[in-house]
Structure formats: C-alpha cells, structure tokens
Amino acid sequence: MPQIRLNGCQFHYTDQGSGPPLLLLHGLGSSERDWEYQIPALTPHYRVLCLDSRGHGQSEKGGAGYSIALFAADCLAFIEALKLEKPHIVGLSMGGMIAFQLAVNSPQIPASLTMVNSAPEVIPRKPKEYWMAGKRLFFAHVLPMRAIAGGLGKLLFPKPEQQHHRDTFQARWNENHRASYLASLRAIVGWGVSAQLDRIACPVLVVSADQDYTPVEQKREYVSRLGDARLEVVDDSRHATPVDQPEAFNALLLSFLQEVDAERTLTHEVDPA
Predict the structure, then answer these.
(1) Mean pLDDT for the chain?
(2) In this protein, which residues make up the domain named AB hydrolase-1 (predicted)?
C-alpha cells in the first residue's frame, strides 16, 4: 500500500480508479477501510484517494499536538504532493471538519465539498452541550478501547440485521492507538470555523442521517450560511451513513459530483481563460 511522508509524519493512503480526483476523509477512530462501500461505485468515474489521518489506520501514531488545523495542513500537503488539481473532497464526521478547515484556509483548492454527518464547529454553548462534551471526554479517558468500541457499535448499528457491521466496526475501533484517539478527540472539542464559512468558494453538499447525533435542523442552519450549498437527508440512518445506507448515499454523492463536473466543463467551454 502507498506510503508518503508529510509534515514530519508517515501516512498511508490508497489510490484507485481514474478521472477527476476525489479525496475521501474518514471520521474519528476510523480509517480508509470505512469507505469500502463507496469505492466500487466511485472508481469507474473518479480517481479515488483515501487518506488515513495521522494517528489513524496505518498512518504513523503519536498523540501530541493534534488539532483539526494540523489534520487539514496534512491534507493540503497530500493534495500538493500528489499534484491533485481541484479535487472533490468528501468528509465524514471528523473528516468533514478537516475539509471545512481546509476549505476555509485554502478556498481555491476544492472543486466541491461533501460533508457527511459533520459540522463547522464543536463548541459547547449550552449547559447540556457542556455536559455531553464533558461526559464523552471523561468516558473516553477512563474506559478501555474495547468498551468504547462495544458501546459505539451498538449505538451506530442497533438493528439485529446489522450484526456484521457491529462486529466489523468493533474490531476495527478496538485497533485504535489509544493516545492518538484521545488526542484526536480533544482536537475536535472546542474547534470551529463557523465565523469563516463565507470563505468557502465551491459547491457544498451536506448529507445528514435522519438519526444522526446532531439534529437535521442544525445542519440546515449552517447550510443557510453557505453560498452554493444544499442539504440532503438520508432516512433510516445513523452516524455512519456511508455504511448503513450505502446505496442511497452513493447515489446522492455521484449525482452531486457529476452535476459539479458538468457545470465546471460548461463554464470552461464558455470562458476557457
């Protein structure tokens, strides 16, 4: 599998298919393996690259100095090193936060953004939000990874027929490097770029599960503050929408990407300069 050294860290990535570049960014505690249901649908149309964020998957582990800004800088370095011109970027949960940060810092880079069950900030503002953030941080620091994996597996895939997803998720989650996982979680809490959303210059698709951690209305609110943006809600889905509803998600994503590509082609033909 390909490896690349960027910003003092060794990264693992995959590179499959051909066509316009499409970069997939996974969520907290996950890896490029979580896109397994998207790869067959996307590679006939796109050059699909999946990057393991530092501290995740087969990338180098650590745990010191992690931040969403650092993860975004890693992604930018990856895009530049592989000479990816105007990549589409898809981010799930933490991956969406990384994509938000990259697009705010370097609005000229992405051709489009697709945010899946994500947000432009994770800043507690109400007593209940402080309580939830504190509880999550506390239990993440005191429980073993196996216990965290078991609880999250049941939360994400509660149905009897989802046993395979539960087993797969729990096994993968249990492989996490504890210090890196905790450092990544701490990087999320308190992060935000909500005040800079007007810097995002590309089309944005926001995908929300109907039963995500955060309500659909929260996504609707930030979509209203973006320029060229739309919200799509996937029914009967939780936080891992690309896994629990892959066909619906893939159809939404491909339709959006092909629409953006068609518009870019038309614009180029009208104004080749």
Answers:
(1) 94
(2) 22-251
The full 3-state SS of 185-243, as one line of letters, equals: HHHHCCCECHHHHHHCCCCEEEEEECCCCCCHHHHHHHHCCCCCEEEEEECCCCCCHHH
Rounded alpha-carbon distances, angstroms, from residue 261 to 19, 229, 241, 264: 11, 15, 24, 5
Report CA Rg, the chain. Answer: 18
Residue 158, SS3 per DSSP: coil
> Which one-letter amino acid corresponds to residue 177?
H
The Cα-based distances of 180 to 30, 163, 206, 244, 267 in angstroms read: 12, 27, 28, 26, 43
State the Cα–Cα distance between residues 38 and 116, nearest whole angstrom: 13
User: What type of residue is 118?
Assistant: S
d(CA 257, CA 253): 6
Domains of the chain (ranges, CATH numbers): 3-121+193-270 (3.40.50.1820)
Amino acid at 100: F
Query: Using an 8 Å Cβ cutoff, are 104 and 197 in contact?
Result: yes
Q: Return the structure tokens found at 202.
A: 């590309």
DSSP secondary structure string for all residues of 64-132:
SS--HHHHHHHHHHHHHHTT--S-EEEEETHHHHHHHHHHHH-TTS-SEEEEES--SB----SHHHHHH
What is the per-residue pLDDT across 130-149, written as a single tens digit (0 to 9) for each?
778 888 888 788 889 999 99
Confidence label for 207 from pLDDT (cuts 50, 70 and 90): very high
Q: Could you report the per-residue pLDDT of 91-113, keeping only the tens digit for each?
A: 999 999 999 999 999 999 999 99
Q: Partners of 230 in the beta sheet?
A: 205
